[in-house]
Design brief:
Length: 120
């Protein structure tokens, strides 16, 4: 026995096919059933898409006065560093004993040369 499938109409989304087969032959007369097709229409409703609000932070204006303070603070530290280096070099130059020793050595050489001239 063959089962027939009926195609659903075009706007239908799904078709549910139900087929009933005939019973096996018996001595008594039986009712022959034919395959039936039941189509159910599924209504498709579009779900409304609501836009989600996006929160973007508002940019805060940069204060010009803060930038000037930062810039002047940088200049202040640069000036202090330069002043500290100059002070360190000055202290090192004052505490250096080599120029005194060289002058004393030069005086001794002058004495030795003068004494040699007198001996001749």
């Amino acid at each position: 026995m063959a089962t027939a499938v009926v195609a659903p109409p075009a706007p239908l989304r799904r078709a549910v096919t139900t087929a009933t087969t005939s019973a096996t032959p018996t001595a008594t007369a039986t009712d022959t059933s034919t395959p039936t097709s039941t189509a159910t229409r599924v209504a498709v409703t579009p779900t409304p898409v609501q836009p989600t609000p996006t929160f973007s932070p508002t940019p805060t204006p940069v204060r010009v006065q803060v930038q000037q303070i930062v810039r002047s603070a940088r200049l202040f530290w640069q000036f202090l560093t330069l002043l500290g280096l100059a002070l360190a070099l000055g202290v090192a130059a004052v505490r250096d004993q080599r120029p005194k020793i060289i002058r004393r050595l030069a005086r001794r050489f002058d004495e030795i040369i003068r004494l040699e001239k007198e001996d001749r």
